[in-house]
Specification:
By secondary structure, the chain is α/β, with parallel strands linked by helices. It is 42% helix and 14% strand. It starts with a helix and ends with a helix. The structure holds pyridoxal-5'-phosphate.
């Protein structure tokens, strides 16, 4: 969703608490009693406890440029995944890395991506006047690799989101390997793993060492609950990352953000616990919907889509009037509504509101 349409929500009276205008305690209370926010694939749990402590400590260190914290984060991530530190680059959010990849690798050459999928790369490309080839997901709701390869004989960038946003569905590893083997020389493949922690799918990080034109993206915004702190990583061979660096030099993320990210990576419980909680709440909700005749995508992420068999946008708006923010709707799938997975209370309120609006 663009900034303009996000702003328009404020006009609907569905604004989030503005922290600069509210005491923190008031803001927390407002969130607890305010609308259910299951519309941006955020975490209902926020940063884990150790990340919160580290972020507090980061405030005191904020008088200095936090290069050391950034190098520690890079070193730890590289060590955890068998990478070289020069294969990991920090961004203030993976969306920024993606936008820089679009700038670096497309222009005269096109962007190929799936539809529906995360719109940020297509929006960035359209902003620069780059040709975009959107290829429908296949019957499994996986990326249709052969159709993507056929879309353009010489694209600049092929974007693959695994698990895919908004469907939450997976593209098998062998399909991604086939894409890497068959893509034209000079075409960069971006595998966006923003939601990989929620799934059992193997990561593509290990493919980086053998593929100089592969970029893998990771974010701390989803499972780690740090969307508001803005931290993402681009992983690729050093010469490829250097092409992204042209757009922001050796940038550094905020101290609190980096320390929160480090603490999240160091916490052995955060991934398994949140993955299990998310899967339980997602699967319970999908089962509840299935029992009432609603078909959902086979999600392995913290979002899924429901086939409403009728235009979805009016239902999204009716849900908003019930104080449950869901969505959005992708133009190519006008009857499907995306739902993010919140906490227990969020999903209970979702079920109650959904039962009311679909009975009406
Ligand atoms: N990639 C995907 C697939 C996403 O869905 C999102 C956010 O929704 C992002 C990247 C952006 O992540 P970040 O908050 O790190 O910029």
């Amino acid at each position: 969703m663009t900034e303009i349409s996000r702003r328009s929500l404020v006009g609907l009276g569905l604004a989030l608490p503005v922290l600069s205008q509210l005491h923190w305690a008031e803001a927390t209370a407002a969130t607890a009693t305010g609308p259910v926010q299951i519309d941006y694939n955020e975490s209902p749990w926020g940063p884990c406890a150790t990340a919160r402590q580290a972020m507090q400590a980061g405030i005191a260190q904020s008088g200095r440029y936090p290069y050391k914290a950034q190098y520690r984060l890079i070193d730890l991530f590289a060590e955890q995944h068998g990478l070289q530190p020069e294969q990991v680059q920090v961004f203030c959010g993976s969306k920024l890395a993606l936008q820089h990849a679009v700038m670096a690798f497309t222009g005269p050459r096109s962007l190929v991506l799936a539809e529906p999928s995360y719109e940020a790369p297509a929006e960035a490309a359209q902003g620069f006047g780059t040709a975009v080839h959107a290829v429908a997901l296949d019957k499994r709701h996986a990326h249709d690799i052969d159709a993507m390869l056929a879309a353009d004989a010489n694209p600049g960038l092929i974007y693959l989101c695994n698990p895919n946003n908004p469907t939450g569905t997976l593209t098998p590893r062998q399909d991604i390997e086939r894409l890497l083997a068959r893509k034209p020389a000079g075409s960069v493949v971006v595998v966006d793993e923003a939601y990989i922690h929620f799934s059992d799918a193997p990561s593509c990080l290990d493919l980086v060492k053998d593929h100089p034109e592969l970029l893998v993206l990771r974010t701390f915004s989803k499972l780690y609950g740090m969307a508001g702190a803005r931290l993402g990583l681009a992983i690729g061979q050093a010469p490829l990352l250097q092409k992204l660096e042209l757009y922001d030099g050796e940038n550094v993320a905020p101290a609190s953000t980096l320390l929160g990210g480090l603490a999240s990576l160091e916490d052995p419980n955060v991934v398994p616990q949140r993955k299990a909680d998310n899967a339980r709440l997602r699967d319970q909700t999908i089962t509840w919907l299935g029992q009432r005749g609603w078909h959902c995508t086979a999600s392995q992420a913290n979002c899924f889509m429901i086939d409403l068999r009728q235009p979805a946008q009016p239902l999204v708006e009716r849900m908003a009037r019930e104080q449950v923010l869901v969505g959005r709707v992708w133009p190519s799938w006008p009857n499907w509504m995306r739902v993010s997975v919140g906490d227990e209370a969020d999903m209970r309120r979702f079920r109650e509101a959904f039962a009311r609006v679909t009975a009406a």
